Structures are given as structure tokens and as C-alpha cells.
Task: inverse folding
């Protein structure tokens, strides 16, 4: 099914699945940056957004030359960019602050676990999107999986400052998701231009705080920090967010939030492989529950879109 943005819902779901899986690598890469340098979370968030802006702008300009796309009024684009950029700045800055404060696993789980609840409530109140019985079960199952991962004796340490930062991150993600979906329903938006404007605005929001923290890190291994930072900017930022903005414009907000729980799944795998965190039976069970919930809701959304696409019998 196509909608106001012209992207089929099935393709939007695929974009979101890829974005969610790739996002999970950002936290692990950030942890390695922290281990190799004194770069702070706000500075890392700024460089991520600034480099992401440059990469996305280059792709957008190249795409526009190859295939011209419809533009929207400058004032509307600037308003959308400022709003979603502020949400992204809070989302990224608070998350990267939560990682060193309470650990990668807890920061990711709390941020992504709070998000579906806030987004489901926000979508119901602002856009009238109903979860339905299956959606409620899927969200509940996903949150139960998160709880099992956190409380299942994984050895993670829960610290209040880090948890509060993670909740703030979820709030920023909620605002960004709801705004993207709302504008996507109204049509006339280009996901590529949205991503460019959002990252430009986010970088501007973060710049003064990153300058106060220190933009240039001290490190004994600058090459390692550079390639890790480049990876964060290119893959879980430019690539993942381009896919996210395209998918979030056409898929229901609650479904988006649950599919994004693929991030803690990939983050958990990387935490075990790269950061020597211990894998327990509770971690495995919670991860499988999150995967099952995300898959169920995605299939439900795709089937609903296919039914709407079928011509009525007369």
C-alpha cells in the first residue's frame, strides 16, 4: 500500500527493521570511543550529527541531480527541521550520557523500553492511532522482554542518573517519531530533506554544549577514535536515520516504536561479543520475546496495509 509519501508500507517496515538493527551498533561503538579517549557524550553526539548532516546532504544533492524531487516551502521545512532536530539532539545527547552513567545494556533498554509507551500514548492522543488488541499484546510482550533482560541477573548496574538520562532520551525519540509520522500523513514531505534538516538543526543545538565539554578529545590512539567516529556517523547515523525517516512517515507510530526494539537486541549481542558482558538465560529469553513481539506487530501492520490495498468487490 502506498500513502501520502508514496512509499509502500511494506518497504517502510523493511527500512525500519534495518535501521533498528544498525542503530544497536552505535552504543557499542560509543563505548569503545570512551575507552580510547576522553571524548564526552555531548561532543560525540555533536560530531555524530554534524558528520551525519554532511553525509546526508551530499546524498540528497546527488539524488536531486539524478532524479529531481518535489520541494516544500522553505518555512515549513525549517519548522520541521527545528522541531525534529531538537528531538534528535535530546534523543542522542541523553542516550550517550546514559551509557557511561549506567552502562550500555541498561541505558539502551530503559531508553527503548520507555519509548513505546510514550509513543503509543502520544499517537493515540494526537493522531487517534489505536493500537488494537494485537498491538497492546505486542507492546506488552516487548516491554516484558526488556524487563527480563534488565532484571534477569545480567550483572548490569542500575544507576538513577543514567536511568533519568535514558528516559529523557526516550522523550526526545517520542517527539521525533510522532512529528515525522504526523507530517508524513499530511504528505508533501521528502524523507531525504527531512533527514538533512533534522541533523543540521540537531548539530546546532548540541554545538554550545559540546564546546563547553570539549570538542577535540585527547587520546593515545587517534586513528582508532577517528574510524570509530566515522563508523558512527556513516552507518548508525546517515544510513540508519535516512531509512528511519522514510519508514516512520508511513508506518503507524506504535509499530515504529516496537520495531526499534531491534536496537537493544543487536546492542546486547555486541555487548557480549565486544565488551565482554555476560550472556545469561534471562538475556536470551528477553531478547527472543522482543524479537517475537516486533515481528508480530510488523506482520500485522503489513497484512493490514495489504487488505486496504485490495480492491473492493462490486
Result:
Amino acid at each position: 500500500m502506498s500513502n501520502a509519501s508514496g512509499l509502500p508500507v511494506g518497504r517502510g517496515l523493511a527500512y525500519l527493521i534495518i535501521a533498528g538493527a544498525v542503530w544497536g551498533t552505535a552504543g557499542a561503538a560509543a563505548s569503545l570511543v570512551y575507552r580510547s579517549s576522553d571524548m564526552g557524550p555531548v561532543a560525540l553526539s555533536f560530531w555524530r550529527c554534524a558528520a551525519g548532516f554532511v553525509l546526508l546532504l551530499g546524498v540528497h544533492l546527488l539524488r536531486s541531480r539524478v532524479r529531481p524531487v518535489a520541494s516544500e516551502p522553505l518555512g515549513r521545512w525549517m519548522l520541521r527541521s527545528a522541531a525534529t532536530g531538537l528531538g534528535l539532539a535530546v534523543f542522542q545527547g541523553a542516550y550517550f550520557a546514559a551509557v557511561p552513567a549506567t552502562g550500555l545494556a541498561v541505558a539502551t533498554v530503559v531508553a527503548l523500553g520507555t519509548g513505546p509507551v510514550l509513543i503509543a500514548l502520544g499517537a493515540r492522543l494526537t493522531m487517534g492511532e489505536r493500537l488494537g488488541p494485537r498491538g497492546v499484546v505486542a507492546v506488552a510482550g516487548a516491554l516484558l522482554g526488556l524487563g527480563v533482560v534488565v532484571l534477569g541477573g545480567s550483572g548490569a548496574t542500575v544507576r538513577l542518573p543514567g536511568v533519568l538520562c535514558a528516559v529523557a532520551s526516550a522523550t526526545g525519540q517520542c517527539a521525533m517519531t510522532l512529528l515525522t509520522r504526523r507530517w508524513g500523513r499530511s504528505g508533501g514531505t521528502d524523507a531525504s530533506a527531512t533527514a538533512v534538516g533534522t541533523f543540521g538543526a540537531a548539530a546546532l543545538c548540541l554545538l554550545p554544549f559540546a564546546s563547553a565539554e570539549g570538542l577535540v578529545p585527547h587520546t593515545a590512539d587517534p586513528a582508532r577514535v577517528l574510524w570509530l567516529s566515522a563508523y558512527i556517523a556513516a552507518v548508525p547515523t546517515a544510513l540508519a536515520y535516512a531509512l528511519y525517516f522514510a519508514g516512520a512517515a508511513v508506518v503507524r507510530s506504535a509499530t515504529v516504536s516496537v520495531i526499534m526494539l531491534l536496537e537493544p537486541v543487536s546492542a546486547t549481542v555486541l555487548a557480549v561479543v565486544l565488551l565482554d558482558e555476560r550472556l545469561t538465560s534471562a538475556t536470551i529469553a528477553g531478547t527472543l520475546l522482543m524479537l517475537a513481539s516486533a515481528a508480530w506487530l510488523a506482520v500485522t501492520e503489513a497484512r493490514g496495509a495489504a487488505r486496504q490495498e485490495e480492491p473492493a468487490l462490486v
